[in-house]
Every structure is written in structure tokens, then in C-alpha cells.
Write a structure and sequence with these properties.
Blueprint lengths: L1 H7 L6 E3 L2 E16 L2 E12 L2 E12 L5 E3 L6 H7 L6 E7 L6 E2 L2 E2 L7 H10 L8 H8 L14 E4 L10
Antiparallel strand pairs: 1-2, 2-3, 2-6, 3-4, 4-5, 6-9, 7-8
């Protein structure tokens, strides 16, 4: 049922627009990774790419060693994120870049292009895996992500779908 809803929907693949890479999908799992003293909240998002279903693990936020929470969306804590990110029920737009974060180009994503807390975190996340161009750039160019979160996840932002948001009317 979940895959049918995605395949029949209007969204297919990654989009580059207004200085941001993005895709739309449905959350289908939630996990937590421990990374260098941080607890990283992750969501697996199912999305359509060239007519087929793909998945990508994406950061939803991180509890930092000092106890503060760095969010990839509008939630302010791990518990709030868990209440919002309901597997098979939450539509999301996942994106990197935009006017406030000039990291995305047609060539990919460069987290060194900004100095926000999120960009610093993204550099740390992408530094865990040895890909010459970085996981975000490989994903932006190909739509391919690593299939299991210990192998890699995208430090992108998440916007939750609501009835009054133009990109998602569900």
C-alpha cells in the first residue's frame, strides 16, 4: 500500500531548485545511531526515483554531548521528533541547501560552504565515510544512497507534510 501511494503520487526523483536539492517521500522507519558522543536520530524515507522505490536514511536531529538538541526540522527534541515521525504515515520533503544555507549547486553539496551549526554537524557526519565527493553529492548526482544507516546517512533537513503545504496535499 505504501509503495502504491508513492508510485501513484506526483513526486519522482531528486529536484534541484532555488539552490537546494530535495526529494519527497514517506517515513518508514526510525533509528538512533551513536556517533562520537552524539545520539543521532535517523529516519528512513521511501521515495520514487525513475519510477522505482528507493530508500535513504536521513538525519532528523542529534542530541549533542552537552545535552542540547540540533534539529533537522521543526521539532526541538528526540521525543518530539519521535511523536512527529510516524512510520508509514508521515510525508516529508528532505532537502540540502537553500537561501539560508548556500551549500547546494548543480554539481552536488558542499558542506564547507557555510558555517552554521548544522553545516559543521553535516561535515562531521559525511567525514565518517570515505567517498571522494561526499555522500550528499553522490546521492544528489545519482539518487543512490547506502541501504543501511551504519553504512551512511544524509545530513539533510526535513520538512513535514501538512495539508496547507503546496508540495504535499495528503
Amino acid at each position: 500500500v505504501l509503495d502504491s501511494a508513492l508510485l501513484m503520487g506526483p513526486f519522482d526523483g531528486l529536484t534541484y531548485d532555488s539552490g537546494a536539492w530535495s526529494f519527497v517521500g514517506i517515513v518508514d522507519d526510525v533509528a538512533v545511531d551513536h556517533m562520537d558522543g552524539r545520539y543521532v536520530d535517523l529516519v528512513r524515507v521511501r521515495f520514487v526515483y525513475s519510477g522505482t522505490i528507493r530508500t535513504a536514511w536521513v538525519t532528523a536531529g542529534a542530541t549533542m554531548p552537552d545535552g542540547s538538541y540540533l534539529s533537522a526540522g521543526s521539532w526541538r527534541s528526540h521525543d518530539e521528533m519521535r511523536s512527529i515521525m510516524r512510520p508509514t504515515a508521515t510525508y516529508v520533503r528532505v532537502y540540502a541547501g537553500g537561501p539560508d544555507e548556500p551549500v547546494a549547486t548543480l554539481d552536488g553539496v558542499d558542506w564547507t560552504a557555510c558555517d552554521t551549526s548544522w553545516c559543521a554537524f553535516a561535515r562531521d557526519v559525511e567525514g565518517l565515510w570515505t567517498l571522494d565527493d561526499g555522500l550528499s553529492t553522490v546521492f544528489a548526482r545519482s539518487g543512490m544512497s547506502l541501504g543501511w544507516w551504519p553504512w551512511g546517512y544524509l545530513p539533510w533537513h526535513i520538512e513535514v507534510g501538512r495539508a496547507n503545504v503546496g508540495w504535499c496535499d495528503r
